[in-house]
Write a structure and sequence with these properties.
mainly alpha, binds fe (ii) ion
C-alpha cells in the first residue's frame, strides 16, 4: 500500500474509479477537485479521520485497488479529533474563523436580497454596490489578504488544498467584477446570478477552511509559527482603516434590517 500512498490521487482514481466513489462517501471531494496533485497520503493527513475510520477507509481503498487482497493497510497513529462542533483553533486561526462570521452573515442575505430588490433600479443598484464594497474590502482585502500573504506562505504552495483555496479567491473576484459590470449595464438578472454564484462558492470555501484546512494547518504549525502568525495578523490589521471595517459592518447590519423589514412587510 505504501507505494500508492505516494501516488497522485487523480492518477489512482483514473485507474481505479472505485477509489473516487469511496472518497466521495467520506465527503472527500477529490473527484470534483480541479487541481488534482495531492498524494493519497496528503488526503488522509488533511482530512484527519479518527484512527479507526482511517484504517477502514484505507482498507476499502486497498480492496478497490486490489480486489483479491494482498495490499497491506498501514496502521493509523492518528488520535481521534475532537467531536464535530467542538473544533479548537489556535488564536490566529480563531481570528480568521471569527472573520468568516461577518462574511457568512452577508452571504446568508444574498438569496433574499436578489429576490426582493430590483437590481436595475438606482436604489437596488446602490445597495448591491454596497454589498460588493463589503466583499472587496472586508472579505478580500482584509480577510483573504491575511490568508494569501501571510498564512498560506507557511505551507507548500504546490499542495492542492492551497491551490484550490487560492483559485476560489480568484473565482470569487471574477464574480464580483462580473456583478459590478452587470449592474453598470442594468442587467439585473446577470448581477443576481453572480451574487448567487459568489454565495455558493464562498459558503463552501469557508466550510472547507473552518472544518478541514485551518484544523490541518493548526496541526502542522509549531508554537513559534503560531506566535509569528498572531503578530503578523496584528500588524496587517493595524494597517487596515478601522473606519472601513466599521463601514463594512454597517453594510451587513443595514441589509439585515432592510431585508428583515421587507420580509415582515411581505408577510403582513
Ligand atoms: Fe479563503
Ligand atoms: Fe477564509
Amino acid at each position: 500500500m505504501d507505494r500508492y500512498l505516494e501516488q497522485n490521487i487523480k492518477d489512482i482514481i483514473a485507474k481505479y474509479p472505485g477509489v473516487g466513489d469511496i472518497l466521495n462517501e467520506y465527503k472527500i471531494g477529490c473527484t470534483a477537485c480541479a487541481a488534482g496533485t495531492c498524494r493519497l497520503k496528503d488526503i488522509v493527513e488533511i482530512h484527519n479521520l479518527p484512527g479507526a475510520e482511517e484504517e477502514k477507509l484505507m482498507g476499502r481503498i486497498a480492496l478497490a485497488i486490489s480486489p483479491k487482497g494482498g495490499l497491506k493497510v498501514p496502521r493509523s497513529t492518528r488520535k481521534a479529533p475532537p467531536p464535530s462542533g467542538a473544533l479548537k483553533y489556535s488564536p490566529p486561526l480563531k481570528r480568521l474563523v471569527e472573520e468568516h462570521l461577518l462574511i457568512k452573515r452577508l452571504l446568508a442575505l444574498i438569496p433574499r436580497f436578489v429576490a426582493s430588490v430590483d437590481l436595475r433600479s438606482a436604489e437596488g443598484s446602490g445597495l448591491a454596490r454596497g454589498a460588493l464594497k463589503f466583499i472587496r474590502a472586508y472579505a478580500d482585502k482584509y480577510h483573504h489578504a491575511k490568508e494569501e500573504e501571510i498564512l498560506f506562505k507557511y505551507f507548500d504552495g504546490g499542495l492542492d488544498v492551497i491551490k484550490t483555496m487560492l483559485q476560489d479567491h480568484v473565482t470569487g473576484r471574477g464574480h464580483v467584477k462580473a456583478a459590478d459590470a452587470a449592474l453598470a449595464a442594468k442587467d439585473g438578472a446577470a448581477a443576481a446570478e453572480h451574487f448567487i454564484a459568489y454565495r455558493e462558492l464562498l459558503t463552501e470555501h469557508i466550510k472547507k477552511e473552518d472544518e478541514i484546512l485551518y484544523p490541518w494547518m493548526d496541526r502542522n504549525l509549531t508554537m513559534k509559527q503560531v506566535g509569528e502568525l498572531f503578530n503578523k495578523f496584528n500588524e496587517a490589521d493595524e494597517k487596515f482603516d478601522p473606519a472601513l471595517i466599521a463601514e463594512c459592518e454597517a453594510v451587513v447590519t443595514g441589509l439585515e434590517k432592510l431585508l428583515g423589514a421587507a420580509e415582515t412587510s411581505l408577510k403582513a
